[in-house]
Write a structure and sequence with these properties.
Layout (H helix, E strand, L loop, with lengths): L2 H15 L7 H6 L3 E5 L4 E6 L10 H22 L15 H21 L3 H21 L7 E3 L2 E6 L4 E2 L1 H19 L7 H21 L3 H17 L4 H20 L2 H11 L12 H13 L24 H37 L3 H25 L17 H25 L5
Antiparallel strand pairs: 1-2, 3-4, 4-5
Helix pairs in contact: 3-4, 3-12, 4-14, 5-6, 6-7, 6-8, 6-13, 6-14, 7-8, 8-9, 8-13, 11-12, 12-13, 12-14, 13-14
């Protein structure tokens, strides 16, 4: 064996002892293997990376949303088909609400497709202007002869094809603003007052305008979104829990100082009492009756009795009660499972974006997850009698044009972030 052969054999032996190939996410992608995204010392995602193209859209998330929309469309028709028998809706056809709901889904789908084309960097640029627009609309809706009042609340701006609710836009605007703010002020996140007071002022301004409508439910959702993004963005945990206590105390004071809200709390605590059963506790008692009639497997699609003018707002806030009556415990449990999976998936996409150094996108997606998950939690809790009655719809399902529109725009944003995550993990550009 000559010197050259010995040299090559020695190099081969050394090479065998060294790690083979490149390391890191891009190397794994190039090798066609799995892409681990680590966050907080844990593998949050282990999945083969699909191509960054139209086929790279998160199909399970998309189909879960389609399933919720489809189920909601059927249930809105079921819950509203008998409403024309009520003198209040005598001029409406049996298909009035379902057709308007289908139109809202169609408009929302078109808006979602357009929103998906907008890069997340552009969303970050638009965050502040969108927040200003949301504030302006919240002011405009309070102006007489512009804002539309229903049952003592002035929350809608008539736009012909639908009544637009500025509070729905405010939810998206606040989460984008909060995510952008945390990215800009990342260096002061450990300094509680410097990090929190601008967000607190912004949320406080939105809260004052929402309580003037009044719409305390939307304010609760917005406060949770903003606080959640602060926490996920890394604000000092001890000080975060301090502000959570302050916010809880503020909400308690709002309830205790308002006689109407205070009566709703008392009705929730004892809805079956003689004082409340035909008053503030009427909706809750009939929602519980509907759920009780459903038992395990329900009375069958379309066979609900409570929707026949017994349960008010059966096609909006109390749609879940009709679902429980017609599909039973199994139907309600399936619905809860879908919302839990959807929220968890959005949080995963957000964590993945943060791991890829797309902090704004990640925090904003997690804000969408908090929005959908918390609002579904409140609506389901209200229908089950676990929480006081609050005017919040069930995302993707309850009748309501602007809510469906903004829900679909938010989902399109999540899908866009996921698409860009996959492009980055392939070594490409978002």
């Amino acid at each position: 064996m000559n010197a050259r052969e010995r040299w090559h054999r020695w190099l081969a032996a050394v090479a065998a002892l060294l790690p083979q190939g490149r390391s890191g996410p891009r190397a794994a992608a190039a090798a066609g293997g799995e892409i681990p995204v680590r966050l907080m010392r844990r593998d949050w995602t282990r999945s083969p990376a699909p191509a960054a193209s139209a086929s790279g859209i998160d199909q399970p998330l998309l189909w879960v949303v389609v399933a919720l929309l489809s189920w909601g469309l059927v249930m809105v028709y079921s819950a509203s088909v008998a409403l024309p028998d009520n003198p209040r809706f005598a001029s409406y056809s049996p298909y009035h609400f379902v057709l308007r709901h289908a139109l809202a889904i169609g408009i929302g789908a078109v808006a979602g497709v357009i929103a998906f084309q907008v890069p997340t960097s552009r969303w970050q640029t638009l965050a502040n202007p969108l927040f200003v627009v949301a504030i302006a609309l919240l002011v405009i809706v309070l102006v007489p002869f512009i804002g539309k009042g229903v049952n003592g609340a002035r929350r809608w701006i008539p736009l012909g094809v639908m009544n637009f609710q500025p509070s729905e836009l405010a939810k998206l605007a606040v989460l984008l603003y909060a995510a952008g703010y945390m990215v800009r002020r990342m260096e002061v996140k450990e300094k509680f007052f410097r990090a929190v007071w601008p967000i607190a002022m912004a949320v406080g301004l939105v809260g004052v305008l929402l309580l003037a409508e009044p719409d305390m439910g939307a304010f609760m959702v917005i406060a949770v979104i903003a606080m959640g993004i602060l926490f996920l963005g890394g604000v000092n945990a001890r000080m975060f829990f301090l502000i959570a206590l302050v916010v809880a105390a503020a909400f308690t004071m709002v309830v205790l100082t308002n006689e109407w809200r205070r009566e709703r709390i008392f009705a929730y605590l004892d809805p079956w009492s003689e004082q409340h059963a035909l008053g503030k506790g009427y909706q809750l008692t009939h929602a519980l009756i509907a759920l009780g009639r459903g038992e395990w497997f329900g009375v069958g699609l379309g066979a609900s009795v409570e929707k026949l003018h017994w349960l008010p707002e059966a096609h909006t806030d109390f749609l879940l009660a009709v679902i429980g009556e017609e599909f039973g415990f199994v139907g309600v449990l399936s619905l809860i499972a879908l919302f839990m999976w959807l929220t968890r998936r959005m949080m995963q996409i957000g964590r993945q974006a943060i791991a890829l150094d797309q902090v704004f996108a990640g925090l904003a997606v997690q804000g969408v997850g908090l929005w959908i998950g918390f609002q579904a939690f409140i609506n389901i809790g209200v229908n089950l009698g676990a929480l006081p009655t609050k005017g919040l719809t069930l995302p993707f399902m309850s009748y309501g044009g602007s809510a469906i529109l903004m829900n679909l725009v938010a989902v399109a944003f999540v899908l866009r972030v996921d698409w860009e995550n996959k492009a980055l993990m392939h070594g490409g550009r978002a």
